[in-house]
Amino acid sequence: MLGALMGWPWRGAVASGLLGSLLTWVALREIALRDALAVLRVMPCHALVMRPDRRPLWQAGSGPSFTGADTTGREEDRLRTAHGHLPPHAREAMVNAGLDAHLRADGTPQRVQDAQGRWFERRQFRLPSGGTVCFSAEITEARQREQSLASSEARLLALLEHAPVGLWKLDAHGRTLFTNARLRRLFQGEVPSRFPRPTLPQPTPTEGVETLMPLPDGTERPVLLGVVPWDPPGGAPQGRLLSVLDLGALRHAQARLAHLSEHDPLTGLANRATFQAALAAMAEDPRGGVVMLVDLDAFAQHNDRHGHAVGDALLREAAHRLRGALCPSDLVCRTRGDEFAVLAFEAGAHAAPALAGRVRAALRTPLRAEGREVPVTASIGLAVAPQHGGDPATLLRAAGLAVIEAKEMGGDTVSLFTHALRERDEQRARLREALAAALEAEELELHLQPQRNLEDGSLAGVEALLRWNSPRLGRWVAPAEILSAAAELGLVGRLDRQVLRRAVQLLAGWPGPPPCLAINISVSTLHDQGFAGEVQDVLHAAGVAPGRLEIEIPEDLAVRDLPAVHQTLTALREVGVTLALDDFGSGHSGLPHVVRLPVQRLKLDRSIVAQLPEDAKALAVLRATMALARGMGIEVVGEGVETEAQAAALREAGCQVIQGWLVARPMPVEAFLASLPPPLLLPAPAQTARAGAGM
């Protein structure tokens, strides 16, 4: 083109000026293009120019490219390759989004991720030629910073949302900008758009001020309000960030704790602590009052038989009936388990019987619970202040002794304290102390009573009976007193084991062939599953054959607690000792229960023997017992035999072994052994006129 221009015919300044301008323009364009290309090559982003048919024309830039260095394929192919790491459905969606951005080419940013996990931001612009230019910059680090910031913001928002205190962001005019879940819960889901009071809290830091907050339902809630100033960006007026702690639940919990500290949670009655405080006030009041203890009869049995749900229902119903039977001024308390207490202030001794009568009548209606009818009765003990005690401990002890008296009278009974009860209690205390010392010193001894075979008059067996002549008490202590005191001390098991060792030692030192020696063992000891092993060890150590030892168990307790003692009884039979059922026929169980017990002997109760031979019912029980025993191969012993007529009736019914004063009274071991070896003779009837002393 320059050559053509030089060959043109004109000459002169015009031609020279035009050519100079053209050469200058070309030079400037070349320099600008060169500089632009240099800039594109070093810029940190990647630039890709595409023709109108979507094919690459050229590319430049020092940054990485989302679609790689391929300059041959069409845009959709390049996008499909770049998104090849995605599942088919997601890949096609991203390809379509990229083609849409290419068609629009309006500079809208598009964020994409390649197979290496790098993130890019792409922007496309339309060129005058109809093509497009796409700028692609890697933003992986920026994206990670954004994600980290977003995660931090999310954690912060979650922390604020679930904070244990209500958060309320207000602008300078009291308009709500932000609330969290705790605040929305306080306002029952309807946080007001503005602060509900005419005056905003001062925008000065405040740790907490107790105030009342109006709620949508018209009520007010006690809250602890804290304030932090908040300055929004841009220099706007000062706002506030409020912390709102709901004190309503705290106040309710405090009231609940205060109530529980003074009341029983099951029945709602005043508890033992409240009772003690009120009892102290009554003891100090010269006008006095009545102390009444109410102990539900057989509650433990109802609880075990019907379950704790029925037991709880029984306690709640008893509490309800007590409140209904008493005056509003009377204090009703649940002091423990199945025991209630009533304090009737300013009531005298004359009012005590009527008060107890109302309570007794209110309780006696059976309770209907879970389809069952449960009888409700109580043993009631009364004490009057100040006659029966001038201090709380003495008054409570007096009422407690009266309750014990009522229970010993059979329950469903009212007992008023008397000084004789205190004397008896002191005697029991002395008895317990003496028994504990006697067990340590092994003062208790065994007396022996023989069992006689009616066929030939021979010795059929011997029973060892516990006896105690206490030097501390200065008297012989009855067996029933011994057992009662041992139970109160929790020493029944120790007593049983002492009797076991004494009896086995006696058998081991017996002059001549030892007989079968019977001892009485309590059911509480039979609950111990290791007892059979102890018996075996004691017999083995003494060299005594197990068949020489007979263990008697009381019929009523054995039948009632059969599931608990059956394993021990079975183990004792495996050891080889003889088992006897004592007091059989006393009315606590029927004959069918015998088949459930692994016994070899039945000892007919003395209450049946005492009525022979005149009483027809006693004879019927005797005949039925003998028929059952013959069928099961069980020997029957007639116990408490005192007359020849009783012995004859037993012999006629088929009973061949008797025991009682007709044979011999219980005697010390030395006296018993002195009567051997000649057979014991039946004493004359005149010598056995006393009854009831065969223990």
* Average of per-residue pLDDT values: 83
Query: Beta-sheet strand percentage?
Result: 15-25%
First-to-last CA distance: 152 Å
Total helices: the number is 23
Low-confidence region ranges: 1-20, 679-695
Name the shape in a single word: elongated
Structural class: alpha+beta
Oligomeric organization of the protein chains = single chain
Q: What Rg, in angstroms, do the CA atoms define? A: 52 Å
Q: How would you characterize the largest beta sheet? A: 8 strands, mixed, barrel
The spatial strand order of the largest sheet comes to 18-19-21-22-23-24-25-26
- What is the number of E strands? 27
Residues in helices, as a percent range: 40-55%
Overall description:
With 695 residues, the protein is of the alpha+beta class. The protein is built from 23 helices and 27 strands. The protein has an eight-stranded mixed beta barrel, surrounded by five helices. A five-stranded antiparallel β-sheet has the order 2-1-5-4-3, sandwiched between helices. It has a five-stranded antiparallel β-sheet with strand order 7-6-10-9-8. Helix 15 runs parallel beside helix 17. The radius of gyration is 52 Å and the shape is elongated. The chain starts with a helix and ends in a 21-residue tail after the last helix.
